[in-house]
């Protein structure tokens, strides 16, 4: 088996590249992808018949160059202004819901937003009755602060 790999080093580098891409699926910050790029460059070096030590140098060199030059542009595209999408509970801010249990002045009640029930407090000083539409203005742990919509 070892002899097979020494005669087919491109397979070794392909396995490294695929492993890096699989690991990248868990991180999503394009750091491990740079090592996959280095491994792909080493595959090409293997095809032209350079010795293993030079393939390792190609891997290291292109991995570092990818980290320095390719990763920043990928991150910039990923986090371009205006393209950030709120997720999880942060996506609730600005949503409209319906009061399902009255929100008393100075107390709390419940609202239904997209099928989920949330404990709510009012940012206003008056009570909000059942059936009224409210808008979420902030979120503190599992309690939303609402105003009449």
Terminal CA distance: 69 Å
Strand content: 15-25%
Helix content: 40-55%
Please count the beta strands (DSSP E, at least 2 residues each): 5
Largest sheet: 5 strands, mixed, barrel
Assembly context of the chains:
single chain
Helix vs. strand class: alpha+beta
What spatial order of strands do you see in the largest sheet? 1-2-3-5-4
How many structural domains in the coordinates? 2
Give the overall form.
Answer: rod-shaped
Following the backbone from N to C, one meets helices and strands in this order, namely: HHHHEEEEE
Subcellular location: Membrane
Transmembrane segments: 6-23, 30-47, 53-70
Keywords: Membrane, Transmembrane, Transmembrane helix
Organism: Hoylesella oralis ATCC 33269
Write the layout of secondary structure elements.
Elements: H1 2-7, H2 9-27, H3 31-47, H4 52-78, E1 96-101, E2 108-113, E3 116-122, E4 133-140, E5 143-148
Parallel strand pairs: 3-5
Antiparallel strand pairs: 1-2, 1-4, 2-3, 4-5
Helix pairs in contact: 2-3, 3-4
């Amino acid at each position: 088996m070892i002899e097979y790999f020494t005669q087919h080093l491109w397979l070794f580098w392909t396995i490294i590249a695929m492993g890096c891409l699989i690991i990248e699926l868990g991180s999503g910050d394009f750091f491990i992808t740079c090592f996959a790029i280095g491994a792909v460059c080493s595959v090409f070096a293997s095809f032209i018949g350079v010795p293993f030590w030079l393939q390792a140098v190609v891997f290291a060199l292109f991995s570092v160059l990818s980290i320095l030059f390719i990763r920043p542009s990928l991150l910039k595209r990923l986090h371009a202004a205006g393209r950030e999408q709120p997720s999880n509970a942060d996506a609730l801010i600005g949503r409209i819901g319906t009061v399902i249990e009255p929100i008393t002045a100075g107390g709390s009640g419940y609202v239904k937003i997209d099928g989920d029930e949330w404990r709510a407090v009012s940012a206003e000083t008056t009570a909000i009755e059942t059936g009224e539409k409210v808008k979420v203005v902030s979120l503190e742990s599992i309690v939303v602060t609402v105003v009449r919509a």
